[in-house]
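Honest question from a wet-lab person: if I give you the sequences of every part of a complex, can you actually get the arrangement of the whole thing, not just the pieces? Trying it with mine:
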Amino acid sequence: DAKTTQPPSMDCAEGRAANLPCNHSTISGNEYVYWYRQIHSQGPQYIIHGLKNNETNEMASLIITEDRKSSTLILPHATLRDTAVYYCIVNGGTSYGKLTFGQGTILTVHP
Amino acid sequence: SAVISQKPSRDICQRGTSLTIQCQVDSQVTMMFWYRQQPGQSLTLIATANQGSEATYESGFVIDKFPISRPNLTFSTLTVSNMSPEDSSIYLCSVQGPEAETQYFGPGTRLLVL
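Yes, you can. This is the full assembly:
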């Protein structure tokens, strides 16, 4: 799987948008970009994924650059409950389903 | 989404003993995965468990240490054998969701080996 690079930590004010970047410059054409988060002491939670196009669901939006070498997860109105470690994962091809977790970004949402 | 439960939720064990962790899913799934999360670290895939076939282990993990069973499409077990303090971790199972591109994780089993 392609390697991803994320900032180790980010802060966000409650009610504001949280924009979490991820670089995946070696991504292959058949690999998806996934975002998961892990709230303290819980199992990881699936957020969103995409291949080429921007995606939106009830939790977040995923913006993927045209060259697919980077992406941004957007939490439109962050709440205190969004404080978690956010993982950007690239997966697909022969390793499909076998997720490789990096260190992720610790997002802290402040009141 | 799939609802996943794990037993036990936590345990404290003595070195040299073994612990079997159970993972139960509320729907039939083809692929199940076992991960380990060491203290302060990210998740590492241990193995993939498909029903009706031997588990496939990742580099650094062996069947003698982490035997896995997958007797049906809703259940799997992971055994941590001959435990040492280095095995103290959170062990998580995950399954592929109804939309095959997604995975859902159980709450984890917190293991402390003394």
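Two things worth pointing out. Chain A touches chain B at residues 32, 34, 42-46, 49, 87, 97-104 (CB under 8 Å). Chain A has no helices and nine strands.
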